[in-house]
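TEACHING EXERCISE
Course module: macromolecular assemblies
Task: Read the component lines below, then compare them to the predicted structure of the full complex.
Student: A.B.
Group: 4
Components provided:
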Amino acid sequence: MVDKVTLQVLANHCRAAAENMAYTLYRTAHSTFVKETEDFTVMVMDRTGRVVAVPMDLGATWYPGMNYNRAIDLVDEYRPGDIAFTNDPYSGYLATHAPDTHLWKPIFHEGEIVCFVGGHVHNTDMGGAVPASLSRSLTEIHQEGIRFPPMTLMRDGVFDEKVLRIMMMNVRKPDLNMGDLKALAGALNTGERKIQAMIAKFGAKGFMEGLDGLMDYAEHQAREILRSIPDGEYFFSDYADEDSVDGNPCRLALTLTIKGDEAVLDFTGSDPQLGSSLNVPTGSDPRHTLLLVGVYYVLYTLNPQLLLNSGLTRPFTCIAPEGTVLNPSFPAAVGMRSLTCGRVRSLIFGAFSLAIPERMPAAPAGSSSIVNVMTTDEKTHRSIIAAINPVVGGGGGMPHRDGPNGSGADAAYLKNTPIEITETEVPIQFVRYGLLPDSGGAGRWRGGLATVMEFKVFAPNTRITARNRDRSIFRPWGTLGGLSAEPSNFIINPGAANERVLGNTDIAVTEPGDIIHIHSPGGGGRGSPLEREPERVLLDVARGYVSVAAAKDRYGVVIRDGAVDAEATAARRAEMKQNAHGGHFHFGPERDAFESVWHARNYAALTRLLAALPVHWRFFTKTKIFAAMREAGPQADVTSAFGSVRRDYPQVPEIALAAE
Amino acid sequence: MSWRIGVDIGGTFIDFCAMETGTNRFETIKVLTTPNEPGKELLDGLSLLQERHGVAPEEVISFVHGTTVGINTIIQRKGSRLALITTAGFEDVIELARLRMPEMYSLFCARPEQLIPRDLIHGVRQRQLANGAIAEELDREALADVIATIRSKGVDGVVISFLHAYRNPAHEAQAKALIAELAPELFVFTSSEVWPVIREYERSTTAILNGYVHPRVAGYLGALEAALASRGVPAGPMLTKSNGGLMTAETGKRACVNMLLSGTASGVIGAAYLAEQAGIANVLTLDIGGTSADLALIIDGKPQFGTGETVGDFPLFVPSVSVTSIGSGGGSIAWADAFGVLKVGPESAGSTPGPACYGRGGTRATVTDAMATCGFLGHTPIAYDQIGMRRDRAEAVIGELAGLLGLASQATAEAIIAVAVSEMFVEVNKLVARYGVDLREFTLMPFGGAGPMLGCFLARELGIPHVMVPQRPGVVSALGGLIADVKGDFIQTIFAPSAAESLPRLREALLRLKADGSAWIRDEQGFTGQVIETLSADMRYHGQSFEIEVPLAEPWLAEGDIAAINAAFHRQHLAIYDFNDEAGEVQIVNLRLVVSGTTERPGLTPVPETAAGAAVPERLIPVWLDGANQEVALYHRNALRHGHDFSGPAIVAQDDTTICIPAGFEAHVDGWLNLHLTLRTEA
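Instructor-supplied answer key:
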């Protein structure tokens, strides 16, 4: 009884099942990762493991297009009452770093599997070299915690005690893991009840056909959107600031080809796999969800009625060559892939901006530092570890309005903690928590402002960690004449004699009385700032979002005594128009300087060279070529830099280069 | 002879119910709102009550009303122009809020425009610490400059919110005094006087909402008092609160934030009263109006309370009856997308122009039009004949949509109802999962104008076996006000371990809460009857970021029985989250006291059973139901007597709504003339 006209009824029932699972998990989970960060997902799948429905209220935004199929097939047998699981990034490419534990449960009707329900939680710790199992400095997957290949976790509704004991023995917070696993299993059982109710309502056959209908529907919606985008090839590249601790930039490249109602995302030209944990494991899956998260955002933005399920991935094909940062070979470390995933999203936003400039915003801040403090309470002498606020930046300027300040776009799911709560629990004192003036990219529509957080510490050896730090060098870009935003920074004692500028550093040891300052990047501007109404610039100045100096320098609006000086503004704007940049993107001086050496030709040469080398030589060779290039100065050339590397390291294998 | 009157003011109609003390005679009327002449509808209603039912104004000893004036001020952004003064360095707290935004998949997600723009927010140097100690004195000179600036910008009032003011309100009080001195024309609210709770954003927002609606609410209540006085009503008007209780209109003029969910909350209170009367413990209430549906759970006879309900675009952090509001109602518009899939909402025809069938200018197909097309509506006058039913217009707009879909009109209408019901199905599922309850143990109680139309369809979808439609579904909120208690909430943040060392602070806090509560209910509300104090604490395990409210017994504090306090917390945690940690360190974040003064409940007696067995339908009417044209029995509600039975499919028409009963339901009328509809279970 599911026909097309009433497909929405089934869609709502499936979503209700997903929402129900999400609320159940959220209510019963133990860890702050689930409760606060909402780093979890749940989903309803078809009988092959393709996601058909996800919640819209709770959880992370990464997996509506997920396919569990490869992991499902790695488990030999399924019986009613079973739950299977894995956290291995390299088995089935479901869990994309070791803390993520995915569970799935087959739903039977008359002895046949009609569908699956599943989901993941980010465990606080899975063991391994460092607490929380995540660090940029790790180099192979074995350091990132214990891994379980796809296997049965629950049989006939009973947990496999042996498996649990092995896990609990190897992790640092066994109670939290256990609590979250139970909560997720409980959510899957809730999902099963909801599915059985749907089978009773729609009939098993009607239900299964209906799931196909829902995926066809999402596919149709995605194709309809693609048809509205002009055919063409759109190339874009973006960089993570560092490919490892104090490393070189990590380049990601994308050629987006739109043809009719299909799209190819070719990531060739992205860096080789890294000797840090910034790799993104995708297993050569042409529709791997981590490569498509940016696409979900774009499609949903273009049609907010979009049904989010794996059907919408069908018109897309991804190409990510093996042995590269977006498709690393075992045993590359992958723990901090979320930093790189942020850049993959900006890569996709940039390519779509080229394809449909009139409908896309400028770059969002794109980097959210997750800040933790480890200090000592002077009253109790107890050691305290606490998560402080995430430091999040604004959205990019939109086609019809400014980017939101202090959060937005692909960071909108993050939450903060009240200052009063933190100050009561953690012996630190906030000095400032707010928006950073002049940090949003100037434009016809301004980018959202950055967040700035400053606090004072009191105990010796207080350690500050700030995960996912990026965009301290390469700025969120502006589009269509809009300017790039201010980059992020991490500074101890700003402006004082003992100031330390830490940039992307993710850990700092501080002294009593130190002031810790972290600010996010801002969002990029969209459209020429010279076209922003002077009154709106004046309002920004009155609101403290833009300084009087920046109003003049960036917007050409001269403000005197709280009013726009129309004459001076006209003159200033006329003068600025002469020198206005004309490109689609505005990247800022850092990227311009970098690309004056590392231009397209050098990157093409580097990509060809490294692709020809065995995987274990690539990151090493890249690092050496970068050093040689720096030495060679502004006219540096990759081919000759490679020659000098080869002279220093004759062990570098001979390679046969494909013709250019 | 004397009368008590309850009034609920909605978007389209005002509902009145009047109860005669002693006889318990109960009369209801409904009048159209007059948006252009606020207050007029009230006097109209009083006149009508006198004409029809002999209610003399001078005999009204109690007048309780719920109003949307506060929430509408926020939704329509018609509140006062305010300035905000904060601790320097924290001026952006209200813009950043808790960061997370709605529509998290959209690159165009954005925050609502703030009620106070950033250019009217000023930081002043001063600082309290978490323990209340003053780390930096208030910079009075800088404050004086800020006051001068604010004055020059032309504002109506000022909100002051300093960090940790819940712990030490001294600087807020000093700042308020300075404003009174330098700018006496400005009204001032401080965060610590409005709702002194930890969490700077939540406390600031509460104070801002209060200040934002204050002038309009105070003006409205003043006019109301004058109108009642002009008619010679001796009772001072009372106002229903978000917490389901009452306060005097006089209190409401300053404590405005407490009345934002005025009518909504009293609907749940009214429903709980009706359920208790009928002996039903677990209820899902479904109040559907033109533009929205309000859902709430009554568990074991108790409405659920919480904070964080949304008003307009803003979260509300004062204790409120938990009501989930969804943008789906009788006026929700049906449309078809390019793939040929039928959608309902989120757009709504609202009360103006309303559904096409109301003949007030609506031209698009709504859920109500679908009901009309199926033949459910229009068999008796609607809303006491104040609205004419134009079934032809409904059929025209539904027919247009049916053409696009390639379906027959009636099949389209039925599909619209199915989609609309499935939208509500999603929201109910979320609510149920949040509370971890099993709907099979619940009764659905639909009320409001459109609730009874859709109630059975939703119950069938949810697997709720039992529906109870009150005798007068239109006046449940007004009734809720009539039986509500005078009720005030008091809070003090403790934020300390739940351990013996904290006892002195807890006892001191309790003394203060009791003193404040007593002053409020005795002196301010003038309540002379028996007062009930309910003590509770917001508690959590160390490291958690949210609290749960745990009822406490006063002797536990007096006797220092920390074990009992913690045991109560562990139990409650297990009940809500399915686990607890009895070895875990427990914290008390807030101590709360609710003082309530009981209002005399009308001692309604059931009517004697006068009808046994099958009710006789008025006539058979043709309707489209469950995929077929059927001849269905039409009953008039007024003709249904205690003891009557009948089976679905059936339509019950009454003055304020229509009840649609699909096949499979057995109907029975009880002694309070509630209609009980039970889903037959297939054996």
